[in-house]
Design a protein that fits this description.
Helix content: 25-40%
Shape: globular
CATH class of the largest domain: Mainly Beta
Number of strands: 18
Order of helices and strands: HHHHHHHHEEEEEEEEEEEEEEHEEHEE
Largest sheet: 13 strands, mixed
Number of domains: 3
Radius of gyration: 21 Å
CATH architecture of the largest domain: Sandwich
Length: about 325
């Protein structure tokens, strides 16, 4: 049996959360209808979720106020709500089995972004910037300040607190700072850390550590920390809506554009390794893809607004 959370089921749950958040209901309803019209599988997933909740949310309305009230709060934590729904038996087992999978953990993150960047204040006064397609858990107590980056990238301006160093944790390790500003990016099998101000210490579960000063960067992967040579500040250009690329494979560029792109964006294995350099607008992926097609031996085929494929020119 497949125990992973189906991506379409994830999307259905995310739509439920958006609708129950109370934000811009008319716009959210219209966007939901567009999503439903895209694919019959979307309709089936939505109907399954509604059946799990009961017709027209009747079971939800009967739920204790401690569960019901968070559903109408703007700063909704999907993780807490969905765990509560599961505890009441309001979600089918098939939807809930994937909570401990990577997609499920991302869906249930405290903070996440879709196709937009987001800037917000943390409880201690630190400032957090999330790139599009990012997800992070926030665990701030009297004893610790912990951000767990599930996917994507962040930049944090840390409020100084010598008793509680701020830690960003990823799948590979941790970045620890007191008062500083730095970037952390969760990649497929590694973590990229770059210091914008002051200093940061990175570490692995094995105990390996490395101190990074302003302007320095490192890659955390497996059982080793690799210090990166050369200027790395351009990796934070997404803060200004730009993707700066210095001799990267096309696949990496497409991965960076994908969270900003409307619909599915795929790249052929035949052109994935083409080398790219340049500066591309993140908020206009159509323009970025056109620029890539003008400088590389590729073609961009669009199949309506929902599917874009990048392949060889010939």
């Amino acid at each position: 049996m497949n125990r992973e959370l189906d991506p379409i089921a994830e999307q259905a749950i995310a739509w439920l959360v958006r609708l129950r958040s109370g934000r811009d209901q008319a716009r959210q309803q219209a966007a939901l209808q567009v999503w439903l019209d895209e694919n019959p599988a979307h309709i089936r997933a939505w109907e399954q979720l509604q059946r799990g909740l009961g017709n027209h949310y009747e079971l939800l309305r009967k739920a204790p106020s401690s569960l019901r009230e968070p559903l109408v709060q703007p700063e909704l934590k999907r993780r807490d709500v969905l765990r509560g729904l599961a505890g009441l038996g309001l979600l089918g087992g098939g939807l809930w089995l994937g909570v401990h999978s990577q997609p499920g953990q991302t869906l249930l993150a405290d903070l996440s972004t879709g196709s937009e960047r987001r800037e917000l204040s943390l409880p201690d006064g630190s400032r957090l910037n999330l790139n599009a397609g990012s997800a992070v858990d926030v665990d701030f107590t009297a004893e610790r300040r912990l951000l767990t980056l599930r996917q994507g990238s962040l930049v944090v301006q840390v409020a100084a607190d010598r008793n509680r160093p701020l830690i960003v944790r990823t799948a590979q390790g941790e970045a620890r700072a007191l008062g500083t500003r730095f970037l952390v990016e969760q990649q497929a099998a590694s973590t990229h850390v770059m210091v914008l101000e002051h200093a940061v210490q990175v570490s692995l579960p094995s105990g390996a550590r490395l101190d990074l000063q302003e302007g320095q960067a490192a890659l955390l992967q497996g059982n080793r920390i690799e210090r990166l040579a050369g200027e790395q500040r351009y990796r934070a250009d997404w803060l200004d809506g730009h993707l700066s690329v210095l001799d990267e494979p096309l696949a990496t560029v497409i991965d960076a554009l994908r969270p900003y792109h409307r619909g599915l964006l795929g790249v052929s294995p035949q052109v994935r390794d083409l080398r790219v350099q340049g500066v591309f607008p993140l908020d206009d992926t159509r323009r970025s893809l056109t620029a890539l097609a003008e400088t590389l031996p590729i073609r961009v085929d669009r199949y309506g607004p929902w599917l874009t494929l990048v392949g060889p020119a010939n």
